[in-house]
Design brief:
339 residues, 6-stranded antiparallel β-sheet, alpha/beta, 15 strands, Aminopeptidase
Length: 339
């Protein structure tokens, strides 16, 4: 079995190079090939149904995306990227934001290097700061800033919700597993600190069994520590900051649903700072701090892809069955317009 994420992608890329030569020897049907003719504004999207070319150049930090003749996901007219479960052009069957099914039109999304998941949304605000800042709006803004930075580096990026919408954990994870990115990062901000300390109390949760997930969590820890240091030395701290897994005491599996459901893709859930702390709430309202957080996430992903850095800040696995905060399910969820 191939080892880390880089080795798996290098193998796929080599296969794709061979496949390109083979495909060129055949007549390609109108619906068969992806369109490489335009840049990758936020994901590898087939804007037309023309045969494959190789005119798009991806910077060396990110490998060329594998050539796929299927459509694992589509982008709807309202901007959602949703996993395809059946159908075809003009009538795709998809998993909806509320984990139902629908038949919609949309542009095929053939792959992504990174999937960013801004936590919460819609009727699920997440944590709320003393100023009234909600986690759902903060998470979405950070995701947009990270996406902008990664796209500037040549990455194809998908964001799991385009606006203030509710999306189930099932759909968020399915977007990632369908697109098979190099990294899946679920962006959150913490609440209810226990004490204060001299170092940022960032918590990074990785999958129990995936070494690339663990390495990404350690890289995120390093980048958050470096990025936040200029903003002060009195930080809110929870029970155990650092990079760690959280395990369900009853099942032994990953505790957080977004990590458990996305197994097979390196995934990390970030809790960069404590929104419920007045001082950190004030920081999180500034462009300077948000840019620092976004730069840290983007840099950690770049290091995952382009280096062998192991990361650090690892702490012991947390085992518990305490409530995870609720939300993310289908109860009361209403799908927004998709066309």
């Amino acid at each position: 079995m191939l080892g880390g994420v880089k080795e798996r992608w290098l193998f796929v890329y080599a296969v794709c190079l061979c496949a390109t030569g083979i495909l060129a020897a055949f007549v390609v049907s109108p619906d068969a090939g992806p369109d490489f003719a335009s840049p990758l504004p936020d994901a590898f999207v087939s804007e037309t149904t023309s045969p494959a070319t190789t005119s798009t150049t991806v910077p060396s930090a990110f490998p060329a995306l594998p050539i796929r003749v299927d459509a694992p996901a589509i982008r709807t007219g309202s901007g959602f990227v949703l996993p395809v479960t059946g159908g075809g052009p003009g009538a795709w069957e998809v998993l909806t934001p509320c984990a139902g099914t629908a038949v919609v039109d949309g542009l095929p999304v053939r792959g992504a290097h990174v999937v960013l998941d801004p936590g919460h949304g819609g009727s699920e605000p997440g944590a709320v700061g003393p100023s009234g800042l909600t986690e759902k709006e903060l998470n979405l803004d950070i995701a947009a800033r990270v996406a902008h930075r990664l796209r500037a580096e040549g990455a194809a990026v998908v964001v799991t919700r385009p606006g203030d919408h509710r999306v189930t954990l099932q759909t968020r994870a399915a977007i990632a597993t369908s697109l098979e990115p190099l990294a899946f990062v679920s962006i959150h901000h913490n609440a209810a600190p226990l004490t204060n300390g001299p170092m940022p109390g960032s918590e990074l949760y990785h999958q129990i069994a995936d070494p690339d997930s663990k390495r990404l969590a350690g890289l995120l820890w390093e980048e958050f520590q470096a990025a936040f240091a200029p903003f002060g030395s009195d930080w809110a701290v929870g029970d155990d900051p650092g990079a760690r897994a959280r395990q369900s005491a009853s099942t032994g599996d990953d505790f957080y649903g977004v990590l458990r459901r996305s197994q097979g893709v390196p995934a990390v859930l970030t809790e960069a700072a404590f929104l419920s702390d007045p001082d950190e709430d004030a920081l999180l309202r500034t462009d300077e701090f948000r840019d620092a957080e976004a730069a840290a996430i983007a840099q950690a992903i770049l290091r995952l892809v382009a280096t062998e850095d192991p990361g650090s800040g690892f702490v012991a696995t947390k085992v518990s069955d305490a409530p995870a905060g609720g939300g993310g399910g289908t109860a009361g969820c209403e799908d927004p317009p998709l066309s």
